[in-house]
């Protein structure tokens, strides 16, 4: 059986998901796994994050150093957690220094990555970053449309079947 994904945005889709579960065979030796979760970050969010981080990397020097977008992703992600009062796990690096754990934005949910992007924009604005047209466009599209186009396509797929994972 191919994996099925339902985006619960209305009662009809919710009923389709319930019906799909009811129709699954029950087998204690080979049970089905059902996961309920907020979707992971979207492609639009990913583009927006990297455009923003690139602008920061090109315009902000930190502790007399220029850092690339990857480094800024780590710095901004830690800042985001700190501003929320969340504990950040870390350890002494094997060769010295400090290593932070659990910073993978690729595994973040939609809401989590939105907070990281907002934090990056706040930090960049505070440091006088002039955001590029790419970053501005991604932000404007997200504010104007969000991922409505993707959601609309997925909802159309739901009417005819289910989206494949």
Gap between N and C termini: 12 Å
Named at the architecture level, the CATH assignment of the largest domain is Orthogonal Bundle
CATH fold assignment of the largest domain: NinB fold
Residue runs with pLDDT of under 50 for 5 or more positions: none
The largest beta-sheet arranges its strands as: 1-6
Instruction: Report the CATH C-level class of the largest domain.
Output: Mainly Alpha
Characterization of the model:
- It is a single chain.
- With 165 residues, the protein is mostly helical.
- The chain has 2 domains: 4-37 and 152-164, no CATH class; 43-146, NinB fold (Orthogonal Bundle), CATH 1.10.3790.
- 53% of the residues lie in helices and 8% in strands.
- It has 6 helices and 6 strands; from the N terminus they run βααββαββαααβ.
- Strands 1-6 form a two-stranded antiparallel sheet. It has a two-stranded antiparallel sheet with strand order 2-3.
- Helix 2 packs parallel to helix 4.
- The radius of gyration is 20 Å and the shape is extended.
- It starts with a strand and ends with a strand.
- The model has no long low-confidence stretch (mean pLDDT 84).
- This is NinB protein.
- It comes from Xenorhabdus bovienii str. kraussei Becker Underwood.
- InterPro entries: NinB_sf (IPR036619), Recombinase_NinB (IPR008711).
- It holds the Pfam family NinB.
